[in-house]
Amino acid sequence: MKQADAARPWSLRRRLLAAILAASSVLWLAGLGTLTVIAWQETSEVFDDALEESAYMLMAATTGLDARGLLAPLPPSRRDGARKVDMQYQIVAAGRVIQRTPGAPFSPFVTGFDDDNGFADLTVEEERWRVFVVRDEVRHFEVQVGQQADKRLDILEELAEALWLPALGFLVLLALVCWLLTGRVLTPLRRTAAAIGAKTPDDLTQVALEGQPRELLPIVGALNDVLARLDAALQAERRFTADAAHELRTPLAGLHMHVQLLQRQHPDLTAPFQKLRQDIARLTALVDSLLTLARLDPLARAQLGRQPVALRPLFDQLLAEYAEDAARRGIALSLRPDLEVVAADPQMLGIMLRNLIGNALRYCPAGSRVEVDAGRHAGRDRIAVRDDGPGVDAASRQRLTERFFRVLGQEEGGSGLGLSIVQRIADLHGVHLAFGPGLDGRGLGVTLEWSPDGTP
């Protein structure tokens, strides 16, 4: 039962909602407590002021009357500055104010009040007042207590000024906590995105469904279907390329033999037959390159068998293979292995160097130089193939590894796949392939660079 619950997909929405609600509840309670304390302090001051104003009222109500029946001046307030509540009182008898505070009008706030007590809103001298009236029917007088509306607004403004900064602080804190929590909850989303982004034509394996939130399962499932169809299409294309190239080799070899035989039988047609043999050789090289790519494309870096490769014997073998071709073309070829060994697949390293040397010899004119150096630079192994031939412009260098790309204006024949094979082998080895100027700032230079332990 526990195992079944663990395998059940969980909801990203529920986790996100639970995290936000939990954080909001805790911060809301903390904010409510803080606001309550501040509001209590402010209202306590208001009630204190009201009590003090009530004392003034009682004092005014018991002050003796002069000959006109008006209140004698009150003693100054014991508080410095303006009062917050600032209530004004009147004692009214027979429609005449017989006693009042200094801020109250000379005439009654309210006349003809029908009830024994109650509130009234009115305007006196363009000022809005809120007045409470209480009537003594036995002694036939009224007490009217009034407060300007502006004074009440002042209290509210003071309360808002005291509360806005803590409220804003809790709001910012809530946003920060929710940001951090949602980021943590959405970690599986980023992990899945990273797994998808790491997919390459060499790695089209299914994205794991275990541990995925319920909301992502349809997306990951659909993506896995696309990856499966793409992998099947690529495999079919590679099989077709390999099968077609393999099937072409036999008829091409037979065609080459027939052309040789016809050339011997018709010596007067040597030139046309020689051109035909060159075209067949070029087509055979293209088929061989396609077969090589068909074998390299399905490989992954983890499948590659690396081992220490001694460079001096390999360079001697390469020099022996290409010395005759270089001499026939009038090109000086030199190979200097200043590095003892490198970590690589021996066969693929040989294919890579043969393609680079063959390209340099093919496209350099007579009198050029081609140099192959191996050494260590900045703690990394480096093999460089440089020439002083016509070179390649900077724009075309960016496309040299594209399949079937050939630089415009080249008269020499080629399949346009040699450097694509080099790039593919370099990727499998984690080798950095770079193009730049060749010898003495002229021609083309190709460098292969990787760490001594074979890591990228």
Write a concise keyword list for the protein shown above.
456 residues, alpha+beta, Heat Shock Protein 90, five-stranded antiparallel β-sheet, rod-shaped
Strand order of the largest sheet: 2-1-5-4-3
Through-space gap between termini: 46 Å
Pick out the low-confidence regions.
Answer: 62-81
Spell out the helices and strands N to C: HHEEEEEHHHHEHEEHEEHHEE
Strand content: 15-25%
Describe the structure.
There is one protein chain. The chain has 456 residues and is an alpha+beta fold. It has three domains: 9-73 and 82-185, no CATH class; 214-285, no CATH class; 299-450, Histidine kinase-like ATPase, C-terminal domain (Heat Shock Protein 90, 2-Layer Sandwich), CATH 3.30.565.10. It is 51% helix and 18% strand. The protein contains ten helices and twelve strands. It has helices at 2-7, 12-62, 149-185, 187-197, 217-265, 270-296, 311-329, 346-363, 394-397, 418-429; strands at residues 88-93, 96-100, 117-124, 127-136, 141-148, 307-310, 332-337, 341-344, 369-377, 380-387, 432-437, 444-450. The strands form three sheets. A five-stranded antiparallel beta sheet has the order 2-1-5-4-3.
Q: Quick recap of the structure?
A:
The protein is an alpha+beta fold and 456 residues long.
